[in-house]
Specification:
This protein has 220 residues and is of the alpha+beta class. It contains nine helices and six strands; from the N terminus they run E-H-H-H-H-H-H-H-E-H-E-E-E-H-E.
């Protein structure tokens, strides 16, 4: 686009309601559709490829790390067993298999975290976030602000660490004779702690319940 500098940036991560409600995109737990989950249809990796081709160990790691799913091992074992005779191609059969295995506990669908992990893997969301933070911060004008809304603890941790690393003027390590200037120092924290939705907002928009907002300002 030829844009060299920007006055501010807002990253609203995750899946939009419009995408969730379109069954053909494969994000929905409640509407049947292909196990796709690609944000960019031009890419080749789909959720079906992951579910049917990844090893049991790879699926366990994926569900545990990206989905933070307590039953990661049990779900991975069941998926590998069932796909031998009936590969998973659609969303509802996978969601129902997980629900039958782990049962329902509370309001959240039991397959939510697995679907989240698949979506994040398909779209390399953490890699894209890391790249986006670097590029946008580099292009921010002085006094420009970057704001990030996350819906996942791994995303929030990445944003927190990025902002923290870029807001320290000095670095110090036990093996160094004295502190050194931080070459990445170019931000000031506007929100030392993340802003979270009020109870009123959560009632009006239940999907906001896990949202966290962090903001930093360019200082040089």
């Amino acid at each position: 686009l030829g844009i060299r500098t920007i006055g501010g940036a807002l990253l609203d991560l995750g899946v939009s309601s419009r995408q969730l409600e379109n069954a053909e995109r494969g994000f929905s737990l409640m509407r049947n559709g292909p196990l796709d989950m690609r944000m960019d249809p031009r890419t080749s990796l789909t959720a079906a490829t992951i579910i049917n081709d990844y090893s049991e160990e790879e699926l366990t790691r994926l569900f545990r790390e990206l989905g933070e799913e307590p039953a990661a091992r049990r779900i991975a074992t069941m998926v590998v067993k069932m796909r031998k005779t009936s590969p998973f191609r659609e969303t509802l059969p996978l969601a129902r298999t997980i629900e039958k295995l782990v049962g329902r506990h509370g309001r959240q669908h039991p397959a939510t975290q697995v679907f989240q992990a698949l979506r994040m893997e398909v779209n390399d969301e953490l890699g894209a976030l890391q790249q986006g933070l670097r590029v946008l911060t580099a292009r921010l004008e002085r006094a420009g602000r970057i704001a990030v809304i996350t819906f996942h603890s791994l995303e929030d941790r990445m944003v927190k660490n990025f902002f923290r690393n870029h807001s320290k003027e000095w670095l110090d390590r036990p093996e160094w004779p004295e502190p050194r200037r931080n070459p990445d120092y170019d931000l000031a924290l506007v929100t030392p702690k993340p802003l979270e939705p009020s109870e009123e907002e959560q009632r009006a928009n239940p999907r906001s319940r896990s949202a966290k907002l962090r903001v930093a300002e360019k200082i040089k």
